[in-house]
Amino acid sequence: MPPKRALGKGLDALIQRSEPRSERDSSPMIPLSRIQPAPTQPRTQFDEESLERLAESIRHQGVIQPLILERDGLNYQIVAGERRYRAALLAGLTEVPAIVARYDSDRRLLVSLIENLQREDLNPIDEARAFAELLEETSLTQEQIAKQVGRSRAAIANSLRLLGLSEEIRTALQRGEISPGHARALLSVDEPLNREQLFQQILAGGISVRDAEVASREFGRRVSEQKKEPPTRPAEIRDIEQQFIESLGTKVRLNGNLTRGTLEIAYFSGDDLERIFQLIKVK
Fold this sequence. Notes:
By secondary structure, the protein is α/β, with parallel strands linked by helices. Helix content is 54%, strand content 12%. The protein has 13 helices and seven strands. It has helices at 10-14, 48-61, 82-91, 105-118, 124-137, 142-149, 153-161, 167-175, 180-187, 192-205, 209-228, 235-248, 270-282, and strands at 29-31, 35-36, 67-72, 75-80, 95-101, 252-256, 261-265. The strands form two sheets. The protein has a five-stranded mixed beta sheet. Strands 6-7 form a two-stranded antiparallel ribbon. Strand 6 (252-256) and strand 7 (261-265) form a beta hairpin. Helix 10 (192-205) packs antiparallel against helix 11 (209-228). The longest helix is centred in the C-terminal third of the chain and has 20 residues, at 209-228. It starts with 9 loop residues before the first helix and ends with a helix.
């Protein structure tokens, strides 16, 4: 396996413990009843099967890595370790080891994000939302966030761009129905109708990332060509063209008039070609 990507300063450099440093290796046990999840938790989805596996491990081995908590009156709020907290509840534990720390608002969000990124299973949308929240709620810039989490500024910017996708596409990316590569291909399609068509093709036909990138470039080329054309195409031609697009679920170009011309139908993989062929054959 490739080595795990370094994440900036890491958690140790960011944690400000309220206990003396000599107590670092003897984390206190905190009752689960006094621990509350943080509203700023970057992760919004927890895989139930994965949680149950962790709970089973905790039943036999206990919680190996302490949670990171911050005092909230008589209780504690989770800064890092909500997945371990949920698994401990499933395992039937009543208390867990914890490091009690104190933070300013910038550091609290950053520690929570880095803890999730170090596990490398934060989905791309939750990650993008976490970066957006850091920018909105703290004084950090994209460049500063990039240094803290061990990413390039361009990577942070590209992550944030995912939030510009429609809710339906963002949900598909969260669920793993499309890959980040597919999402980046969709982002390069500016026209909303074309983007939606390509998204539906990805879902229905299992188009590879490479095919999606080819399709996005083709959409861009066609849009560019259409912008160069004088807006003199008859409304009847545009209406028929749109009906073809809706019927076949792909880009269609009608060149000519109502009595003579050519019909261009775009496809982006062998499977896509077979799908279009079957549609035309049936019709």
